[in-house]
């Protein structure tokens, strides 16, 4: 939808009009940012939002906890853990657990990092192509 039409739709939405002006401006900015992204990235974001919407409150909290811990890692470690999670999520659960418990992973990652991987890989999240594992944007 062209930007002018998007703006018209927002203005015609009674729920949007009831929001405080600051919140309306934030949402307009997010929509503009979204519209500037390539179609493939937009689709990934929409898929993640759709998946997030179907998680139980407990799963959402687990995701927040895992990814909150990941954000506390130094950037180089966070990249390593994120890459490992992406790879692990492509595996069946039994293989995933074997890899996490392997001597190789024990040598590469701390117990805390492997626990983060275990938690993130268990979540039923949308694919994480090129970004953080399944984290909605």
Protein model, in words:
By secondary structure, the chain is an all-alpha fold. It has 9 helices and no strands. The chain has helices at 3-12, 14-18, 21-36, 39-53, 57-71, 75-89, 93-100, 103-108, 111-122. α6 packs across α9 (111-122) and α7 runs antiparallel to α9 (111-122). The relative contact order is 0.13. Mean pLDDT is 86; it is low at 128-137.
Based on the model shown, name its key terms.
single chain, 9 helices, disordered C terminus, mainly alpha, 137 residues
Helix % is: over 70%
The secondary structure category is mainly alpha
Q: Biggest sheet, in brief?
A: none
Q: Which runs of at least 5 residues are low in confidence (pLDDT < 50)?
A: 128-137
* Broad shape: elongated
**Order of helices and strands, N to C?**
HHHHHHHHH
Tell me what portion of residues adopts beta-strand conformation: under 5%
Strand count: 0
Number of helices: 9
